[in-house]
Amino acid sequence: MKQIKHILYFVVLVMATSCEIDNYDQPNAELYGTFIDEGTNEPLAQDIINGTVIELIEQGWVEDQTNVTQTLVSKGDGTYQNSQIFSGEYLVRAVRGNFHDIPPIESMEIKGRTELNFLVTPYLRIIDPVIERVGSTVTATFRIEQTSTQEVSRIGLYVHPNPNVGNPMTLTSRVESNINRLTDPSETFSLSIDLDANSSTLLQGNPYYFRIGAVSSAGSAKYNYGPAVRFTI
Amino acid sequence: MMKVFKFINCVLLAATVSLLPSCTEVLDLEPQDKLPVEAVFGSPAGVKLYMANLYYQLPTEDFLFFNSGFNQNQGGPNNGGQTRAQSTDEAVHSEAGGLNNGPNGNGDNMNNYWIAGYSLIRDVNLLIDAIPTLNIPEEEREKLSGEAAFVRAFAYFGIAIRYGGLPLIKESQEYLGDAESLKVQRSTEKETYDYILSELDIAISKLPESWDGERRATKWVALALKSRAALHAASLAKFWNKAPLTGDAVDLGYVGMSASDADTYYAECIAASAEIMDSGVFSLFQPTPATPAEAAENYRRMFQDPNIALNEAIFIKGHTIPGNRRGHNYDIWFTPAQLANGWPHPGRMNPTLDLVDKYETYSNPGEEAPIVTTSEGDIDDYNGYDASKNYLHFDDPRTPFEDKDARLHATVVIPGSSMKGEEIVIQAGFILPDGTPRIRTGGSVEVDGVTYYNYGGPTTNDYSGFDGFGGNNTKTGFSFRKFLSDDPVTPGWNQSTTDWVEFRYAEILLNYAEAVAESGLGDEARAAEVMNDIRRRAGHTTETPLTIANVMRERTVELAFENKRWWDLIRRRERHELFEAQISHALQPVLDLRVSPPQYIFIRANVHNMNPRTFLIRDYYLSIPGVGASGVIQNPTG
Q: Of A96, A120, A144, at which residue does a domain stop?
């Protein structure tokens, strides 16, 4: 009996010493902020399922290793947030957005709650957007401001029950127009959705968000949007 | 004398006993987790076994290729019967609707071929190492080298079309304690395709023209793969800028092709295709049918058993006997519900109206022929029944499809057509005598003493359409016929033994026609001729000119459900244009009880309960698994 007890003590001892607590700290920093249109000072809205990507590369972890890239995708309203980041020095760059390229931030410290806003110039701005319903037609009229000499590729009017409505999230067959030319800010564009022609997907009595979008012909440009407007049809 | 023998015996025994222990060589251990090269490649049977395993691993998108990946025939492969076709505009799934299958390059799915592909490359590299050491005739060695080059090219092609430029591992690697030395960075996308084509040139020069009936890679198979791979590379080069990307991988050329290279690849495709066409070895199966009905039956029979069409089949993947890891599951998943023969999960493949519309009519050749359902003739209204419209009425639900291309009837089960001797009933509902529509509701109604059922029959065994029951009914109005066996379904897993044609002559002709039409190189008259040969085989007698639209429509209908459509959309960078909140369409046959006797009307409608599908440009390249460990530069993820 005594022997067994000794053996058990030994076993406990062995097991206890093998129980070392994981010695790595969990991520303890957060990065958040907003993409802000430098012209209007408003957050820059964009698609939610194809949003701007922020690449984070921790400095001094592995030398010259560019592929250890963490990515974080911004939200539809132009804000972003990642609360699971290890404190440290990072290279931060926002890429593949709906705005003109901005230079990367070669090195910045992320520690605690770190706010980082990006002042950006959208490829296109939707000016004076009006979306209204007349009878069974929803019509959008707007003008487009170009911020560069790149042509406007396409414009569209989108509808969805979700406020993140846009080109990849819409319930009608394409209500779009290929422009493929330079536009003048005084030119008025108009697009409309025939509610009757979409009666099986746009149900009467239900509220929907409508939104105007436009995309530039710049390489890998994403859509720029006006505000989403909600009303019941 | 006896004594002497006994003495010698004793001495021998003693000598043996004393020598024995030194013979055991206890310290010379063979590793338990490896076989020595000689054990595998020492005999022709061993080599054959090894080769069979390599062929098994080829990325052929065949009867075993499902949403969950390649070679899905182990045990009860309950993948829902979700296939590549349902991720395109060819079909939707009866339960899941349209599949998207865009972003996932990880895990067990049809897009992930990184790990499995490199496993195959490892296996074939080991063979290539061993070939010079094998004790076989020089002629055999040559053929084996050709096969190895073919397998390696096929594997790299399977990975490259998913991920772009690749780390090219050209010889087997050995781990000697230093992982760093094993790391290989990607080559550019162009270098990768050039390497694939150069490996195929080796295969073409070394492979025999036939293996005397064995299904192994011949010179023609390697040329066929070259035709396919060169067309893929050419299309990427020509259309890459339709869907441009940015990022490190683009800057370094690991993804991205240049339009200036397109013609070189088109020329390669034309040359490889022409060599097969000039060989005289291959021709179209039954090229001049007397009637469309005969054309339909020829075409159907060819896929039900490609061995009757060995003049057209260039490379067949066989299924000899049913069972685990042997048979396949096309018949149980895709047969119309009425012919399930007790199997609980039929009817998963629902061809779309969009595909059906694409088939030409004989009276208006060279054009898509959408099914017109109203006297107004509008074909773009998919909102369902509208009492204010004048629907066309038909006694027989087959009438609207009568004039359509024979291949439609051999590919798709249209409402009211017959399969295995049974009329396949596909009905979405009826219009009551008072004009009230009852569509997709179930139930029955009695009119003038006759009972009419909403889905066309009293029990779930009596119809194949629109009932949600078990996900067994089509939701598009069409069921599936191509490849399916004439025999009754055996209600169990892995029981089908139809053979799959990976390369057939018609694909080569279409590759040729497309390459000529896109590049202006090659023989335009010949390209038009071979495209029209394929149409003639389908019963068309009016020729159409060689245009991109004609070639691509012909390709879509001729190769429908052969898992080519997905890659056509990818390589031509059309997928993101076609799949922007895309919804597929159905044709609902509805019995109009207002007329006596009741007649059918048809309603063009959105496929019900289907989520719109969007394909993002970034998904043209999948994310590479394990880059943190391998040091490989990742694809653009945004």
A: A120
pLDDT value of residue A22 = 65
Q: How far is B365 from chain A (nearest CA, A)?
A: 28
What average pLDDT does the structure give for chain B?
Answer: 92
Contact B612 A95 (CB under 8 A): no
pLDDT of residue B11 exceeding 60: no
Q: How close B99 comes to chain A (CA, Å)?
A: 15
Give tens-digit pLDDT for A39-52.
999 999 998 887 88
* Domain that includes residue A54, residue range: 29-120
- For CA atoms B535, B537, B543, B547, give the dihedral sign: positive
User: Which of A167, A169, A200 is facing B384, going by the closest CB pair?
Assistant: A200
Taking CB atoms and an 8 Å limit, are B636 and A96 in contact across chains? yes
pLDDT in tens, B588-636: 999 999 999 999 999 999 999 888 888 888 889 988 988 878 889 989 8
Q: pLDDT digits over B273-282, tens only?
A: 999 999 999 9
Report the percent of chain B where pLDDT is more than 70. 94
The partner residue sitting opposite A53, judged by closest CB among B583, B631, B637, is B637
Higher-confidence residue: B225 or A96?
B225
Q: Which CA distances in Å does B616 have to A48, B114, B166, B611?
A: 12, 21, 22, 16
The domains located in chain B, with CATH, are: 37-172+184-261+618-630 (1.25.40.390)
- Asked whether the bond before B21 is cis by omega within 30 degrees of 0, the reply is no
Q: Which among A211, A2, A189, A220 has a CA at the least distance from the CA of A100? A: A220
Lowest mean per-residue pLDDT among A184-198, B227-241, B527-541 = A184-198
Residue B357 φ/ψ, nearest 5 degrees = -60, -30
- Domain boundary among the residues A120, A155, A173 is at A120
The amino acid present at B241, given as its one-letter code, is: N
Question: DSSP of B578-618, one letter per residue?
Answer: H-SSB--EEEEEEEETTSSS-EEEEEEEEPTT---B---GG
Any domain includes A5: no
Q: Count how many domains chain A has.
A: 2
Read off the pLDDT band of B105 (50, 70, 90).
Answer: very low
Strands B437-439 and B429-431: antiparallel
pLDDT confidence band for B267 (50 / 70 / 90): very high
Neighbours of B532 (CB within 10 A): 21
CA B351 to chain centre: 15
Same domain membership, residue A228 and residue A128: yes
B237 and B265 Cβ atoms separated by less than 8 Å: yes
Q: How far apart are CA A46 and CA A54, in angstroms?
A: 14
Q: How far apart are CA A177 and CA A196, in angstroms?
A: 20
Indicate which of B246, B376, B380 best probes the interface with A, i.e. most A CBs within 10 Å of its own CB.
B246
Q: Burial, B414: exposed, middle or buried (Cβ in 10 Å; 0-12, 13-18, 19+)?
A: buried
